[in-house]
Design brief:
Structural class: alpha+beta
Organism: Halogeometricum salsisoli
Oligomer: single chain
Distance between the termini: 14 Å
InterPro entries: DUF7531
Shape: globular
Protein name: YkgJ family cysteine cluster protein
Strand content: 5-15%
Length: 309
């Protein structure tokens, strides 16, 4: 894919606060996310496990959906990675909310956390916006780009959208701020779409213990999940098996423990950003730098755009 990413990061930040016509593309259709995370990056089971092994369990977050009428597969509109597919039922009730499910198990993704950072995409002034945990707020480059942990969803973006004939974030940025971002509009050959039942256990997971999720809906909606909440979902994802909803409890328990023990620069920086952050959309001219908050805690530096061909 040929894209112009310099000064953009539209797929990595929630830029709705600075848009005159903010997109609601993740909340269309009968299966609305319970959270308000913009452009969540859904990870495969193997990618989740790799983040956990690498000590980045504190960089992961789950997403569930409210069940639409007659819906139970827990999927978004295709931009979240496809359609899990299952027999229609009213979902599973948690905290009085009917949650999309596969059978009697709540369905969910695992993605990368976002936290408020001072960023200036598209030439706007430095502003507090929710941004991917791995985004350098100065260069607007990914700190793990091209590395072993770099997700397929990011590596192939916006290929999945083009293959599904969905509008890309590049095009949304062009409509709102002008310029040329999507330089190649031909759908490429992509992998990892995982549409339909093949997504189950590989990208769409099923939590086996809905009775132990009291309070999680309210906390997910508030963006206030606890470490234990996140560890529970991540453990299920790691313990899952492609094509099945059953969970290997030994693998799941090991992953839960690893998430709770995680103390990466991502987790420490996320806490630091939260202490400094103003309200989303507020001026961030006086905010600390990414070097002071992230690199000082062990984050790899990014090369800058002069180093990118």
């Amino acid at each position: 894919m040929k894209v112009n990413c310099e000064g953009c990061a539209g797929c990595c930040v929630d830029w709705r606060p600075v848009s005159s016509a903010p997109s609601d593309h993740e909340r269309r259709g009968p299966r609305q996310p319970l959270d308000d995370v913009y452009n969540l990056v859904p990870l495969t089971r193997d990618e989740v496990a790799a983040f956990v092994r690498g000590g980045f369990g504190d960089a992961l977050v789950p997403r569930m959906w409210a069940a639409g009428e007659g819906e139970s597969d827990g999927q978004g509109d295709g931009e979240d990675g496809g359609d899990g597919g299952s027999e229609s039922n009213p979902g599973v009730e948690i905290d009085g909310v009917s949650v999309a499910a596969i059978g009697d198990r709540p369905a969910f993704f695992v993605g990368l956390r976002k936290s408020p950072k001072p960023v200036s995409p598209f030439g706007v002034d430095r502003t507090w916006m929710d941004a991917c945990a791995f985004l350098d707020p100065e260069t607007l480059q990914c700190r793990i780009h091209g590395g072993d942990l770099y997700p397929d969803e990011c590596r192939e973006y916006p290929g999945h959208n083009l293959a599904l004939e969905k509008q890309t974030e590049c095009e949304r940025v062009e409509e709102n701020f002008g310029g040329d971002r999507l330089l190649d509009r031909e759908a490429p050959d992509v992998s990892g779409l995982l549409l339909g039942p093949q997504a189950v256990g590989s990208k769409v997971f099923a939590h086996p213990d809905p009775e132990n999720l009291d309070g999680v809906v309210e906390r997910m909606r508030a963006g206030d999940l606890t470490d234990a909440d996140r560890a529970s979902f991540v453990g299920v994802a790691v313990g899952s098996r492609p094509g099945f909803v059953e969970v290997d409890e030994t693998r799941a328990a090991d992953a839960r423990e690893a998430v709770l023990d995680a103390d990466s620069w991502v987790g420490r920086a996320t806490d630091e950003w939260a202490e400094h952050a103003g309200s989303v959309g507020e001026d961030a001219a006086d905010a600390p730098s990414g070097e002071a908050v992230e690199v000082a805690r062990g984050a790899p530096e990014t090369p800058g755009w002069d180093a990118v061909e």
